[in-house]
Amino acid sequence: MLVKNKLLLILFAVIQTTSAFNNKKIAEYLQNKKDFSGAILISHKNSVIFKQYYGFENRELKIANNSKTQFPIASNTKIFTATAIMLLQDKKLLQVTDNISKYIPEAHNFTSVTIHHLLTHTSGIPCYYKKWADICSCKNLDNIIRQISTWQQEFIPGSSYQYSNTNYLLLAHIIEKVSGLPYYDFLMKNMFHPLNMHNTNSVSTDDITKIARGYISNNNNITKSPLITSPLTLIGNGDLCVSLDDLHIWLKALFSSKIITKPSLDILAAKQTALSQHSTRAHGYGCFIDKKDNKTVVEHTGALIGFLSKFMVFPDDDIMIIILTNVENLEIFSEIEKQIPNMLFSDGE
Fold first, then answer.
1. What is the C-alpha to C-alpha distance for residues 293 and 203, in angstroms, rounded to an integer?
2. CA–CA gap between residue 27 and residue 262 (Å, rounded)
3. pLDDT, tens digit, 9 for 90 and up, residues 188-233
4. E strand or H helix at 202, and its extent?
5. Nearest one of 15, 42, 48, 17 to 342, comparing CA atoms
6. Residue 107 · residue 100 · CB < 8 Å
7. Distance CA 57, CA 48 (A)
8. Contact, 34 vs 2, CB < 8 A?
9. DSSP per residue over 272-335, as a string?
């Protein structure tokens, strides 16, 4: 009888905790966002407590966004890259304290840059957007790396913070050198295939039929966004496309230490570098760590012309929020990413 009562109390606690979240309020709020097109998921512990698709994967063909729609997640690719690095460290194939010249011998200008510096955006290596003329005509990743290796650093490694996509492009190259596999193949073998992620892809794929079409919203006028023309530069820093469910599967696996060890996860999701002297926001490995209403959140945002994406993980509350959109409207997206956590954790009033 005592055991039965305990089980009933546990069941009641679970139901009470799940129902305490303002799902109805969130659903009503999003229903009124007529211009939002994409997918949103909220999970608590191992249960999805909210999931909905909005708008069209392809407006011209009238194909609605659905469970198989793959959204380019842009810079959210970076946490996959950081996880791959930590996985290689778990396998004792590298150390984040290693100098990158160990794996990129041609990087003579970066002799004091470590893998840790790349992971935390403290390398001083400029973002490739500043040097686009140097790399836009490169035909493969090796040529891009050789060009980057001729650049000058903008500050002494470890002395400052500056977000740079180049850091994660270099990390992708290191993953390829150490593993002997192309970057995407390494992720497929070690993450996507074991986790049964069947709706994940790269922007450089030949099969684009399942990838959402991107659009831009401007003054209530929605137009097609330009197609991606330089996918090589996005490797490791912005090239992944995932479905809503696949991204949730992957985040659940990561934060339950099913991809990398718990000590490695603790490092990845820890505050490694403050963004500024007076900021509470810090950078981990492939993610940002901040406070929202005194709750710790591990998060990142992705932006690629026509697409915006966001994941937020509240580890202390075991809450995950994923927002994916294929109609670029920064005003609506920014409002949604702020309002959902506010409503989720409100007292129901």
1. 36
2. 35
3. 999 999 999 999 999 887 677 789 999 999 888 999 998 876 788 9
4. strand 200-202
5. 42
6. yes
7. 22
8. no
9. -EESSTT-S-EE-SSSEEEEETTEEEEEEEEEETTEEEEEEEETTTTEEEEEEESEE-HHHHHH
CA dihedral 113, 118, 122, 128 (to 10 degrees): 100
Give the span between the Cα atoms of 203 and 193, in whole angstroms: 18
Residue 297 carries which side chain, given as an amino acid letter?
V
pTM, entire model: 0.92
pLDDT of residue 206: 65
- The whole-angstrom separation of Cα 211 and Cα 209 is 6
Structure-token pair, residue 260: 């990398």
- List alpha helices for the chain, DSSP H: 2-19, 23-31, 77-90, 115-119, 132-135, 141-148, 165-179, 183-187, 244-255, 262-268, 330-344
Instruction: Retrieve residue 33's tokens.
Output: 């966002």
